[in-house]
Amino acid sequence: MTHQIDPPSQSTYLQGHSSEVIASHSARTVSNSAAFLLPHLQPHFSLLDVGCGPGTITSGFCAYLPQGHVTGIDLGDSVVAHATSLHPSDKFSNLAFETGDILKGLKYDDKSFDVVYFHQTVLHLPDPIRAIKEARRVLKPGGLLAMRETDRLNWYPELPGLSKYNDCLDRMLKSAGAPGLLGARGLHAWAREAGFDRERMDVGAGATVYSTPEERRWWGTVHIDRLRGEAVGGKMRELGLLGKDGLEEIVGDFERWIGDQDGWYAALQCEVVARK
Predict the structure, then answer these.
(1) What is the pTM of this model?
(2) Distance of CA 147 to CAs 99, 110, 144, 221, Å?
């Protein structure tokens, strides 16, 4: 059955798709962001990646699904065009990128995909349950919903500026009605409310860790660039979450964290695989 698509809505992804944001998204791969899903895949599966960004994870699935097909969707035409340009069809014959808004309804028929995958997407949505219901609609019977979302950012040493950054980021996400940084621990409950059976879920967790000097330099600089740019820092200022003094405090503590030989970052990643 063809599904009715509602008119496009304004994006609730407040971090935007600036160069500094895309730079961090491009570091995401199947191995570091979807390892929990790989044992469940079969070569003929069709997979939908919701919120694909530059497509670095999306394209990684192609090697695992050589007889299947991979589709990545995102809200913006420019994001989809960028992902498409990075993954030409002569190298990725079973891959496509398209625009789509899961909260407004996807163009795909019921029971179209074997797998629907979310990564760092649900925590930005004002109605996670509605999104998961739509994912369930396009899943085939027996299909898999796979979700991996950050629940908390942990920094050592616990510098005041980094605590302030966590708070500002959380409040920025919540300003769009999204669950925020502590919402992902409810992924499995949202899936159950959306119609999945709790007894047919694998609920687990992983972690993203940066601790070497090179990792600290890269990850700290990513956040400093976001703060100095308009996509994140500009939005925080627009919302009244951050002033000039607060910005400099956060940037200064990021620089201290980068230079601290004991500096360490870990993000709890909540992971769910639910079967339809």
Answers:
(1) 0.89
(2) 20, 20, 10, 27
